[in-house]
Design a protein that fits this description.
- By secondary structure, the protein is an all-alpha fold.
- It has one domain.
- It contains 3 helices and no strands.
- The chain crosses the membrane at residues 12-31, 37-56, 68-94.
Length: 98
């Protein structure tokens, strides 16, 4: 039962980590979207990366329950959050720099 719970947690954390990458494909393939959809996607990206990082942290608390999938999910979600925070800081500082 414990292993099944850990596998579900790992899958949920990985799915939350891949949602921001899926929305990145929209910009890579230059698919045009409305402003409202872009705003919704940016909020979804932040929430899913934060949720994935929290789920990976919950699953990795105990050394017995750590898995490779949880480690990958934590690294993926953490790097996405750092990137998003960096973009926000750059957007906030850009008017002052110009």
């Amino acid at each position: 039962m414990e292993k099944l719970k850990r596998n579900k947690l790992s899958a949920a954390a990985l799915i939350c980590g891949f949602i921001p990458l899926m929305s990145l494909l929209l910009s890579v393939f230059q698919i045009r979207t409305d402003d409202g959809i872009r705003l919704l996607l940016s909020g979804l990206n932040f929430v899913s990366a934060l949720t994935g990082l929290i789920l990976a942290g919950i699953g990795s608390r105990n050394t017995r329950t750590r898995s490779f999938a949880l480690t990958v999910a934590a690294l993926l979600c953490g790097s996405e959050l750092v990137l998003m925070i960096g973009f926000l800081l750059l957007a906030w500082m850009l008017p002052f720099l110009s």
